[in-house]
Amino acid sequence: MLNEKQKKALRSLPAISTILQLPEVVKLIKNTHFDLISDLVSETIEKEREKILQTETPTILSLSTILEKIMDRYEQITTPHLRSVINGTGVILHTNLGRAKLSHEAIKAVQLTASEYTNLEYTLSTGKRGSRYDHVEDLLVQLTGAEAALVVNNNASAVILILKEIAQGKEVIVSRGQLVEIGGSFRVSEIMTQSGARLIEVGTTNKTHRFDYERAITDQTALLMKVHTSNFKIIGFTKEVCLKTLVEIGKEHKIPVYEDLGSGVLYDLKKHGIGNEPTVQEAVKTGADLVSFSGDKLLGGPQAGIIVGKKKWIDRLKKNQLTRSLRIDKMTLAALEATLRHYLLGEAHEKIPTLKMILMDEKMIQERSQKLYEMLKPVVSDQFELKIIDGFSEIGGGSMPDVKLKSKLISLKPLHLPVHQFEQELRVSPPHIIGRIFEEQFVLDVRTIEIKEFEFIVEKMKRIMNHT
Ligand SMILES: *Cc1c(COP(=O)(O)O)cnc(C)c1O
Hints:
Aspartate Aminotransferase, domain 1; seven-stranded mixed sheet; 18 strands
């Protein structure tokens, strides 16, 4: 039963036809079309009706308040939902912020394939049908030393494809210490079930020996798989069987060996004292039959799953029906080709944003922080405590969790505003600035912010200062 207040509130709701005749609404209809605006109006009224039914003491809304709600909803639905953000978190491959940023050349290549016809699946020299994979296979072979290569939608699909083609209905031996979960929804063990392969776990969480693998081999064994546990580290009393040993076991028993490298670096960061990630080239050289890795982790390219290895196995993968479903898009392919060419030309560290950010030296970081500090100083005046403090950036994307890159942070401590409210103001409206709260200070890591973004931060601060 409705009470009197509810009845009154319901009666006060304007008719849809009345709203549709308001000049502001007529203007929206002119800008778009009648059906869209009519839907927005009915949805808004329906929502208000629900609210009235759910409360004993409903408030009566004026026509102008309802109009405001319609306008807000219109704004919301007609402005892009996917926006650019300024990444001040210091996490270079921030999964929630879209992982790797592409190089200029990769962006240009994407633009070209998006706006022009291309020879995507057309052989220019013969005028016959070609393969989309040809645009990157040679590059991958050249760069990694593998016999052949194939690319799919992402590394998760590469794992599924390999398991399905090579081990469906058969057994795959994996060390218990490598049964990782990546990003909450991708579990190696579940992928295995999905692909129809039987998982044979060997060893314990911290130790797996050569004999563990050898004892588990039967006539049902189709694959020895190694998962590079790039997103966590077991430390202390541990033993892993290295790829070299696994390859020896595989050769002895005529069973292929596959390593899921996860990140997959082509540029040797170890040489710069950063992390201990094996390169793809090393895995290939050690003799793995198949190696797979992501395009948008440490490689610094678009989302893709890259598979390299022995021609015999790659040829089988190419023929699998699933490859068609996991097919890489033309824009991705274009970005990947451009990214790989940077490696070929020896310019990867100068052109690929991910590598540039990882390799940024202390002097450059110092200069950047000084520059942003000086731009902000006159703006924030006495309402914020502004400092440059020492901190660490992370690689992110589940790559090299133990690597901490020394960095400089701009610390802004609001003196008349709760820091959480300040953080929210920076984040919610454009330009969206994402940082971290650390001991009542809001901090921005300059490593992941581009110099051209500094002025946006200054402008935003000016705006915040004006209305506090
Ligand atoms: C990240 C990762 C994957 C998944 O790769 P995507 O390209 O994100 O699909 C698979 N395996 C390992 C070991 C990883 O680190």
